Amino acid sequence: MTQHSMYDVVILGCGPAGIQAAIHASRKKAGVLLLGRMNKSNLFWAHVENFLGMFKTSGEDMLKTGLAQAESFGAELMEEDALSISHEKRCFEIETESGRKLCARSLILATGTTRNKLGVPGEKELLGRGVSYCVDCDGGFFRGEVVAVVGGQSAAVSGALTLLHLAESVHLICESLDVSPVLQDKLRESGVSLHEGVTVKAITGDSKVEGLTLSDGTSLPVAGVFIEQGAKGVLELASTLGLTLDESMKYIQTDKAQATSVPGVFAAGDICGPPLQMAKAVGEGCVAGTMAATYAKNLKLAQEGGAEE
Fold it and tell me: FRET pair for 23, CA 20 to 30 Å: which of 120, 261, 280, 289?
């Protein structure tokens, strides 16, 4: 894969919205990078029979065909998650789980909204009283405390590493690690206590979180537990970039051009709210890809014009 320091459009998410956005953005001759793993998309494991022109097909086949289309128009794929995003003067800077730093003139968020709950006793009852789904949002409330992060993917590992700078000690609980070798090495070399091969059976405490019960019978005293399963979710992205959410605080608010409240940032698919259907995701991906490519081209012209003055 050819490496570039600057892309016109970087798309977070490799599901139907993200791939469709990549197809339309790259057809407008924009430099496009897709970040993500398609097997993390819900569609990958589904069968489709309610999409125009399709009686029944596998989501995996649709995504693989769509990716081949996007790549045929020049889009690139990097099978990594984004760990951090910042808005610099001339671009959005993205750091991936392997430590690569990328620049984008425009961003498309198409990561879906999956917030996998544990479904264990105490999770619902202690939400907001020690149970959180967002390290970036709530980590600061646990300075000097003992905390746990649950999950084995990039959001959990990066969250645990972040909490090391805030908490007294950090536990990471997962059945198995599913991150890049670079991020896995960072974790194992850090001060995070890794509990691999176990699950959380209960979150304990009366008026606030006091501990966890693990599947191997261990009782782990903690003041907070962060459930971070998957890649960076809508709450983390919104808090980092200052995006406006809808009234439910679950979805990113966009206009008819799929533009968010932050210039240069677009969103498409389930991250924008229901109906959580592939047809909607594809349509929004089409609009987001087209508008993001146009925004990036106009920004590039303005920057080049300014440089010549």
Answer: 261
- How many CA atoms, within 13 angstroms, populate the side-chain half-sphere of residue 58? 7
- Give me 227's structure tokens: 């459930």
CB 41 within 8 A of CB 16: yes
Q: How far is Cα 230 from Cα 174, in angstroms, rounded to an integer?
A: 12
d(CA 178, CA 80): 11
Q: Is the pTM of this model over 0.85?
A: no
Torsion sign (Cα): 267, 269, 270, 275: positive
- Quick: pLDDT tens for 9-38: 999 999 999 999 999 999 999 999 999 999
Phi-psi domain of 277 (left: phi exceeds 0; alpha: psi -120 through 50; beta: other): beta
Q: What is the DSSP letter of 252?
A: B
Measured between alpha carbons, how far is residue 79 from residues 84, 218, 226 in Å?
A: 16, 35, 25
**Burial degree of 301 (CB within 10 A; 0-12, 13-18, 19+):** exposed
Q: Which residue bears the tokens 């910042």?
A: 86
Q: What is the set of domains in the chain, with CATH numbers?
A: 6-114+233-308 (3.50.50.60), 131-227 (3.50.50.60)
CA–CA dist 303, 44 (Å, integer): 39
